[in-house]
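We close this part of the discussion by returning to an individual protein. The amino acid sequence and the backbone structure tokens for this protein are reproduced below:
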Amino acid sequence: MTPEEQIAMLLTQRERGAPPDVVPKRNTLPPTPGFDWDTNLVDQAVNKVYGDTRYNPAAGINKEALRAVAGVSPIGSIADFVAAVRDNSSSMATLAMAGMIPALRGPAKAAASTAKAAERVAKYPAADLSKQTVLSPYRMAFPGIYDNPKEIAATAAQRVKEPNDTMKQLWGVTRADLDDIAKARGRGDEPKGVILADKPKGAESARNVMIPANEQRLIDILSEAGKYPGLRHADAWYVLDPVFQRMTQMFGPEEAVKRFRNFNTMTGMASPGSDVLTEVQRGTAAHWLNEQGRFKDFAKYAGMAEDTRGRNFPKDMRYIGGHPYHLTSQAKPMQQYLDRGELRSEAPKVPLYTEASGVPQTGYQWAYPVGDAHFSRGVGLADTRKGPTDVAASFSRSEHQTLSPWWQEKIAQPVGIQGVPAQARLWTVLGPQTGVDSPLGQGKLELLSDQIMVAAKRLGVTPQTARDMVLSGKAGAGALAAGVPVMGSLADQSRYD
């Protein structure tokens, strides 16, 4: 029995109320290279969570203790595992354990990580109230966002990539066609995937960007960007209607709704920690393997770095790049989605992202911004967050609940567009200021098209055949090392309240 399996058994038995004499004794785990096992730590954490030395489930879980353990203990992922056991989902429990094991290395690693994040934050320039338009800034993390809007837009326009003919080959559309679709689209439905706080207290970091001076800065930047067709095309970044239309041709309208939702959700769920080309590669791979009844292969193998893969690694998966957050940020949430049949999360970015990529036939939301790391930096959250951890990350649930309605009403509407296109336009025009190194201007459909063309070469088939294989779950798009940094990347999963 592996160390992971022993700890899983220990926690499972406690969850189900096994008497103490059948629970494995402490310090019986075998040594494992690279890990300093401390089962006393496991014991202490479980005791705190259950508040009962006999591990009696009838006593219930002490939620305050659970939050405390998750906040200060190296095995904070115990919360995920306990939830998995309660749901009697062995596959989920396995994934949760995989995310929990590295945390058993001890407090020193967590402390070192925090110190490293604080060191990064300390390197940001000091606040400059003569230039910044946010309230009570702690720093000026990305000074360029406060530059002259005309100069910001002109700089970004020089980085716009000229369109190629891949969308025309695969879907029969151009950027102009997508622009027309975007112009006709309304605010859509209310977001459904984000689990909102019942009694939100609001985020001070968000309130401090919601002031008139900052509103005018953002409106001016978006307005200047709208004068350049290449930057304005970002309004259509999330439009995937041609994908749905092709699925309708292949499967009929009713089946297309189900298939598009699943394809769009699984692709979007590969976005944490990924650029969009990597997201498409890994997300379509997860979709393909799930359609073939092999999602366990994705969970087991798709996180492995290329130089660690042995002879038993599936040959048809070798084109998939490894990922540092594979289990915790992608495979585990995907398994939850597949088990439940819906995407629900307290972290708002991914649900808002997948819903923004929806179509009228499946439902979509275009009111609230997809708050990735570059959005946070652009609106000024990187300056108003206290830290000390990475202040340049995606927005948190409390920040989303505080500022998303403001973004729609006070920023997007005065510019004459919806909140989602406004976020995409801001991402594009401020890209050079917030750390985007790649060319600008390509939307999600164009990037998906590029990856399908790569897959066609990898599979030795026509682009149209590769397109239909990817959409039907018979293959994944892309190839190894195809990614470049573009919109959708998540630099960090930190939350700020």
